Amino acid sequence: MKTIVLVVAALALLLTGCTAAVKDRNSESLVFRDDGVNPSARAWLIRNDPFVAALARPVRLYPTVYVEDSRVIVDQEPVHVKMGEGQASLVKIEWTIGDAGYSFPDDNSVVITAVSGPPPINPPECKTKGPRPYQTIVCRYKRPPGSAKYVYTITVTDGTYPYHSDPYIAND
Questions:
Q1: Dihedral-angle region of residue 168 (phi above 0 means left; psi in -120 to 50 means alpha; beta otherwise)
Q2: Are the CB atoms for 67 and 157 separated by under 8 Å?
């Protein structure tokens, strides 16, 4: 009986998740995240635990990148930047690999280009994060006022072959 109660309690905690108040990286306000785990640790869990991967939901501005049938898939399309973000400070978008065996080859793995509306005030700058093979790349740019649509090319590799995709970013 005690074992059943412990299992039910553990499942309830797992399924309800944790709520954490954190400072929004793109503004001065507090926001509530329902995952309670930083995005890099979340991506590691997705790569290494099929149960977590099956239940994970996208976290805005922290897209997870997968490769399926030789195609690059981003877990949120488009990536939405809310009005007001990126004006007082830089917009920060952090892409992380969600599949074991793939990585970002270099700092040019994500290239952002404006297709409609005003271009970013400063050219988007992307940098890989952590040791090789790079599992994370962070891009920053200062957005102009108003709506815009940016296309980005994303490249991942399995160590021998590059895979590309061309999704977009919407500045709402």
A1: beta
A2: no
| Contacts (Cβ under 8 Å, ≥6 apart) of 92 | 25, 26, 61, 138, 139, 140
Contact 76, 63 (CB under 8 A): yes
Q: Average pLDDT for consecutive 10-residue bins of the chain (172 residues)?
A: 50 41 43 52 72 74 89 87 83 90 94 90 92 93 88 91 77 66
**DSSP-assigned beta bridge partners for residue 152:** 112
Residue 83 near residue 170, CB atoms below 8 Å? no
Q: Where are the alpha helices (DSSP H) in the chain?
A: 2-16, 39-48, 50-55
Interatomic CA distance for residues 85 and 61, integer angstroms: 11
- What is the token pair recorded at 13? 């905690």
pTM tops 0.85: no
Amino acid at 40: S
- In this structure, which long-range contacts are made by residues 74-80, counting pairs with CB atoms below 8 Å and at least 24 apart in sequence? 74/154, 74/165, 74/167, 77/167, 77/168, 78/149, 78/167, 78/168, 78/169, 78/170, 79/167, 79/168, 79/169, 79/170, 80/169, 80/170, 80/172
- Quick one: DSSP state of residue 25? T
